Design the sequence.
């Protein structure tokens, strides 16, 4: 049962344009969402997060939007740069009992930004 | 952001031997550490959660006698793959989180190859 889904395995964007990465979840108990960036043979790097009490969080070029009714979140990168090319994972967690702090990851989306 | 160091980054061992992987939080106290495994082109799969001074909690299907986890201090957790076999070959990644934090910071990962 895939509770967090990234339905687009890959995304290709021109440098300077906007990259939009999408993520859907099924578990309504999730109350915290994160985006990580990962290069091959490296650990994920934390990018940005959002609590379920918000619908938007912005940090520099990165903005995360949360639509709780649709159980959907997205990561916007503006403007996209070639160095942004990596695998992006969304993750979700909830502060419930023994599950506190545990992250459930999506499958990842490979972003390629062309010069 | 917080720094998590993982060592070694790559290890090759013979079948039947044991391998220890270290995970250290360098600039914060990690009350909880997580161990993940990633197969090629797949997402991160949580293996176990460890809290400092407590026994690790293993995910369903993960053999606790095979993957020994020790979290003896607030800055160090170790994963020992006992009697490793070729099917244990994988990319192992640790993460750490501080008290009251929802954000996991990841190590760089360890590539284990069992011959």
Sequence:
């Amino acid at each position: 049962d895939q509770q967090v889904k990234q339905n687009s395995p890959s995304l290709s964007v021109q440098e300077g344009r906007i990259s939009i990465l999408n993520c859907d979840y099924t578990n309504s108990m999730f109350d915290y969402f994160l985006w990580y960036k990962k290069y091959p043979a490296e650990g994920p790097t934390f990018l940005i997060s959002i609590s379920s009490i918000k619908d938007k969080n912005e940090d520099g070029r990165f903005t995360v939007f949360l639509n709780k009714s649709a159980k959907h979140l997205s990561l916007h990168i503006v403007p996209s740069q070639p160095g942004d090319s990596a695998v992006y994972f969304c993750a979700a967690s909830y502060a419930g009992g023994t599950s506190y702090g545990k992250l459930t990851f999506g499958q990842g989306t490979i972003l390629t930004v062309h010069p | 952001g917080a720094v998590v160091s993982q060592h070694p980054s790559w290890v090759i061992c013979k079948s039947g031997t044991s391998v220890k992987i270290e995970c250290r939080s360098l600039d914060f106290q990690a009350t909880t550490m997580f161990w993940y495994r990633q197969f090629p082109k797949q997402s991160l799969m949580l293996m176990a959660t460890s809290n400092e001074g407590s026994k690790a909690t293993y995910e369903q299907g993960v053999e606790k006698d095979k993957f020994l986890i020790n979290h003896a201090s607030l800055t160090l957790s170790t994963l020992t793959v006992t009697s490793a076999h070729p099917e244990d070959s994988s990319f192992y990644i640790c993460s750490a989180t501080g008290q009251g934090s929802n954000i996991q910071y990841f190590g760089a990962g360890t590539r284990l190859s069992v011959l």
Notes: The mean pLDDT of chain B is 92.
